[in-house]
Structure formats: structure tokens, C-alpha cells
Amino acid sequence: MTQIILKHNRDESLKRFHPWIFSGAIAQYAGKPDEGDVVDVLTADNKFIARGHYQTGSIACRILTFEDECIDENFWRKRITNAYRLREKSGLVHSKFTTAYRLIHGEGDMLPGLVTDIYGKTAVIQAHSTGMFRARQTVCKILTEIFGSQLSAVYDKSYSTLPFSINQNIKDEYIFDNGSANENIILEHGNKFTVNPETGQKTGFFIDQRENRKLLEQYTCKSNVLNAFCYTGGFSISALRGGANIVHSVDSSQKAIELAQKNIELNFGGNVNHQAFVDDAFTFIRNADDNFYDVIIIDPPAFAKHNSALKNAIQAYKRLNAAALVKIKHGGILFTFSCSQAVNRTNFRNAVFSAAAISKRNVRILHQLTQPADHPVNIYHPEGEYLKGFVLYVE
Known about the structure:
Elements: E1 3-6, H1 12-15, E2 20-22, E3 26-30, E4 38-42, E5 48-54, E6 59-65, H2 73-89, E7 100-105, E8 114-119, E9 122-127, H3 130-134, H4 136-147, E10 153-156, E11 173-177, E12 184-188, E13 191-195, H5 210-216, E14 224-228, H6 234-241, E15 246-251, H7 254-268, E16 274-278, H8 281-287, E17 295-298, H9 310-327, E18 332-338, H10 345-359, E19 363-369, E20 388-394
Parallel strand pairs: 1-4, 9-10, 14-15, 14-17, 15-16, 17-18
Antiparallel strand pairs: 1-3, 2-6, 4-5, 5-6, 7-8, 8-9, 10-11, 12-13, 18-20, 19-20
Helix pairs in contact: 2-4, 5-6, 9-10
């Protein structure tokens, strides 16, 4: 097996069980690893410290284990079974009211580079590293063993998440299909959503906002609500379920607006006061009437996927939140989020603080939000806490 030998004093993060090795920490290679190979990691004095997937680029190795154990089918079965049991403990696996959840959350389940989401009887695999892509058939086999007849399809959706160097000759495809339709109607706390793994963003749906959408319901009774960056209408449906007077859904994507309308009809028919707009969310907020909205939800896509974009992202969050705080009614509620991994909780809090100061409104934090239990954060990998949110009361 190829070995990675670290520079002197560059093993401290591994001693703290951080699951990444950056290329700058490597002194030399014993052998020539191919993309996705399992490699041993040695300290500068040639002592074994970890084993993981080799990858070209800044993150040179994603650690699978800190034990000297074989990365075989039994290894994968143990890790995936552990992830399954955690979702059982969270009450998700057998829920009658929620049928979509994340089964494997990368580093949070000690399987860095692998995401697996469950949509009813369909599992969607997404590999973020070559090593995980090469293991996808083994992962698929174990999923069918664990779920049995409860799983009828496994869709591999890794094309967009794999390194450019290897994704040219692959395609998204079903790697197990027992005759299921590619479009699923899933439940989230009893609300219905149409999910198409083949055409939807990410793996098909934004599962990570599930509990935050449920929380919104208690704040929307008899309210005028704006759901900016609405995508397929998740927060809009929760607002309507909570008894909103009117909900406006805004997204720059015509396709997203059509899906939002479809999901609202699926849940309520034509019996609710909902309007959808294809528009830039910032422009829509800026042009909105003052003091019209009682509740505003701001859930934009990631403004910073890398540290190089951090400064611009913080400014964007500040401007967006300031615009919403200026427009919202006195006594209004603002749900605001960042899903940018490069923007930590302190960064985001400071951006919202600055926005409040710009708006000259009295603002109080009611809730500090994060991702749900099926998106666990490995305590040794704080970068895994990517979703940050606040519920603000605006006087």
C-alpha cells in the first residue's frame, strides 16, 4: 500500500482526529498513489497514524480510520450500519410523517466525501471524492442489505461533485433499480413534496432545513410572509400550514417557482393565498412596500464555497439582511440563514449584527439555528457545521 509521510510537526491535527490532510503537510510518498487509492499515513518518524483516500488538490487525503484496519466490505458495512442506527435513534427511519432524511453525512458519519439521502424508497448517493466514487457499488450493496424491500432504487448523482479531472467519463445513473419511478412524493412533518433526484438541486431536495421549516409554523399565524430564495417552496408551505394570511415566494429560477407552485397545490389545492414571483430576491426585497411583511425568510444559496470568497460573502449577507430589516414590520420576525461552510457562526453573526446597526432597528435573537440530527457534526471536524441561522424579533 502506498504511504504518505508527513513533515515534522505536521501530525498534530491527526492526533486530534481531524479527518483531512492538506497537501502542504506531506513530505514525501512511498509509492505513487492514483486518485482515490487507499493510502497509509505515517508520521515523520515512520509511525502509522491513519488510513484514508488519496486525492489530488488541497485536501490530499480524507481519513477513513485512525486504526490499522482493512478498508474492506466489512468496514463499509460497519460504518453504514452505524449511520443507519443513528437515524433510527433520531426517529427518522420508521417515521410515518417524515420519509426523507440524510443517511450518511460525510465526515459527520466518519465517511468523508460521501453523502447519501433517502427519499421514500429511493437512496441518492453523492461522492465528493474519487475514493468514495470508486466505493459506490459496495455502498449500494450494503444499502440494499440494510433496507431490504424498503429500498427500490439507488441513484448515483456524483457527476457535479467529483473533481473535474475524473468526471469527464462518468454520468449520473441508477446503480440499482427495482422498477421505481424517478419522481417521488416525500413527507416532511406531514407536508408533501415532489422530489426528482435526477433533476433537483443537490440530491433532489434541501433536507437540512426540515426542523427550521417546522419551527416557522409557530410564527406565521395571520401573517404576511415573504419567502426569499424559495426554491421548491419548503418554507412557503410551512408558513401556510401555520396559518399565514398571504405568502409570497420569490426565486430567480422559473423552474424553482414552478416546482414551488406544484408543491403548494399538492398540499393545499387552490385554497390558500399564495403568489410566486420570478425575480432576484435582493431586488424584490428592496422594492417591497415598507411594513407589509410580518415574517421574512432569507435562505440564500452559499455565497462562499471557499475562503477566498469569504469577504465578499460577508458583505452580501450584511446587505441582504439590512434590506430585510429595513422593510419588515415593527414586531416582525426574520428567519435568516447561511449555508456557506467558509462562513463560520461568528462571521455570520457579525454580518447580521452589522445589518441590524445599518437598519437602526432594535433586534433580538429568539433562536440560534443549525442543521438537524441527520446532519451530525463530527466534534473533531467543526467545519461540518455549515448551516447557521437566526430567528430575530425586530421592534
